[in-house]
């Protein structure tokens, strides 16, 4: 009997094992299937930028290089002064110039560091539109129509690029360094040009009231001539008005930023944050700067971008504060990148609280070995060095990206545009402090230098550890950005309709999209019910009170 049971159990086990091995047997017999993708036909892609500087251009060319490596025909459309930015990307990307810069207005004239509502700014915008719009529109239109263009990637400031693509029904993507479109803002987000606060989070009631009902109308009124100039230029060549920044523009807005530099909020399906995109390679340190960095353990790097430099008073305060921090041993050397033209009209001497006087010209000439002024410096390479402990910057997006990527905290001296908002966001993240240009003094600057450089409680180091990792992780997204462009390339309908990203609200009325029709009916029902209940209660009270009154009598 026991033998019989043992045989039965063995048979059952073998049968069960056979059942379990059956899928493996079938798989080995019929093989495996590897997912395959359809072949994507190479396309003609144009990247355009005719204003700004390298911070507007380099990151998009990094994306363009990825697209070129995938087999696409990629070109960089620009004007003569910016041809140099395309040279490092040859032969992957072909640079095509649309001609010289034909306006007396320079990009820096479009901003006023003291007054965002300056008539100079309005006049500059108006003039540049009158000078360049028609020439650029026809240049874009000719290039697009003669090169079998599949998609165009236009800079946020390239209005003629948008209009030419729209006219030819070519899909487009906007590339921008900061969020400007309406589907990338929320009610609590303020306008970058109106205030140095990126959100209303820390604003009082009076500040919010002033901004919404005084500052905003003033802004609209002041920039009305610019809107008129755009409308007139379009009417001159019979171009239909088009707002590529609108929520329903059917244009993807690709932003070289990330949550951490940007204030987190809901965004629409046409907004993509793809940054911070860091270059594939950067210029290394020359030998004399290698020696300087190796000989100094705690170095500060100071630079304020290509367009703005401190005024006489700002330079005086900054340099005095730095020299006093140097005398106190907070750092042992600095490198200040300052062009020859920016050295004009500055103080001749600086005197510190110790009574020591420094010759500014002597600093420029290299008389103080620990304190270097350079006409140009390889910024990324300096920030990458382990002995660089602080970056004093204007707060431009590219400078912030490079500093955070290398884990270097910042002392920010913002001038205009997106710089004040960038500065406050990074300060709120606990990796920077901000200087107020309008209340700039040595004591405040010195104390902020001390706070970051000494970092006694490890506040900045602790916050920077996570921020550096965040930035380095996000910096890998240029391939994702290239995927977005290919997504548009291969999925549009009717040549330019990005149908799969259109919001449903575009197809329904405002009442239905917001459920106001349902809410109004519900409100009416609740009012009717409330009134009915009130009447019923009133009738019951009357019936209850009348007999009681008779009894009392």
Automatic annotation (TrEMBL):
The chain crosses the membrane at residues 520-541. Keywords: Glycosyltransferase, Membrane, Transferase, Transmembrane, Transmembrane helix. GO terms for molecular function: UDP-glycosyltransferase activity. The keyword Disulfide bond does not apply. InterPro entries: UDP-glycosyltransferase, UDP_glucos_trans, UDP_glycos_trans_CS. Coiled coil: none annotated. This is Uncharacterized protein. The gene is PARPA_12964.1 scaffold 45652.
